[in-house]
Specification:
Layout lengths: L1 H19 L11 E7 L4 H10 L4 E6 L5 H12 L3 E7 L10 H6 L3 E5 L8 E5 L3 E5 L5 H5 L3 E7 L1 H16 L3 E5 L6 E5 L4 E3 H7 L2 E4 L4 E3 L14 E4 L2 H6 L3 E2 L6
Helix pairs in contact: 2-3
């Protein structure tokens, strides 16, 4: 009887030791979560700190990206061998202070995501086990003025879902849903045709000029879109616009 009790105690002790060491196959992962708020918590610093610690990959889907310190942190990460990829909304190049051009010039893989709506995500996946998300756009205003939230989650299980979403955006296989006027039918179509690298978008663009102001714009510039047909002129290249006496818009910087 004593022998059986001793064996049972040894077995229970072994199970306890293995469980504490992380070998219990049935124990669920407990996500580690940190929550920050702007402007009081310096969210940009928290983001940069985690990018600086990245070892293998940083994948970003960001609606609005104008923060130079965060952009510089991404460049440093790329320079030390980290795989950096950025998905931005298709309208980003048209906005003043957008870092889409900066990232492209620094040879960071950047793609513009189009569709019937906007690419409104705000998340970053680091080393396939950390995700940074929340209401916080990567802008100075979000960091210093707005009331925003930032959540940092360390969980491979949760990150898998964000990675799946990012990869669909990056590869252009997201499903875009269009509603018809009668509200009773819907059509789902792949958005692959509107997923482009930033370089490709620039190559295919035409430029729009205003005959009155003698300024020219990118096709997705909010000021270019306001030009009436009467005052509109198009150019096939930037050089053509400049040769005809037009000056580049200071907002979209064509």
């Amino acid at each position: 009887m004593r022998k059986r009790v001793s064996i049972l105690l040894l077995a229970l002790s072994a199970i306890l030791i293995l469980s504490q060491a992380g070998f219990c196959p049935t124990s669920p992962e407990v996500p580690q979560v940190e929550v920050f708020f702007s402007p009081q918590d310096n969210c940009a610093r928290e983001i940069i700190s985690r990018i600086d610690d990245a070892k293998s990959s940083v994948y970003i889907a960001m609606y609005f990206f104008t923060s130079r310190p965060i952009a510089q942190a991404l460049v440093k990460a790329k320079d030390r061998g980290v795989d950096v990829k950025v998905c931005l909304d298709k309208e980003q190049p048209a906005y003043e202070y957008s870092k889409s051009e900066y990232l492209r010039n620094k040879e960071i893989n950047t793609r513009l995501v189009g569709g019937s709506g906007i690419m409104h995500h705000k998340f970053c996946v680091i080393d396939e086990h950390i995700v940074i998300t929340g209401s916080y756009n990567w802008t100075a205003r979000a960091d210093l003025e707005n009331d925003e939230s930032l959540v940092v989650i360390n969980s491979r299980e949760i990150v898998k879902k964000f990675l799946k979403e990012f990869n669909q955006l990056w590869q252009g296989v997201k499903i875009d849903t269009y509603k018809y006027k009668d509200k009773t039918r819907m059509e789902k179509v792949p958005t692959q045709d509107v997923i482009k690298s930033f370089t490709q978008e620039r190559k295919e663009s035409i430029y729009i000029g205003h005959k009155g102001t003698k300024k020219f714009h990118r096709p997705n510039c909010r000021f270019g879109k306001r030009i009436s047909e009467k005052n509109r002129i198009t150019f096939s290249s930037r050089k053509e616009a400049i040769n005809q006496g037009y000056i580049p818009c200071k907002v979209c910087k064509p």
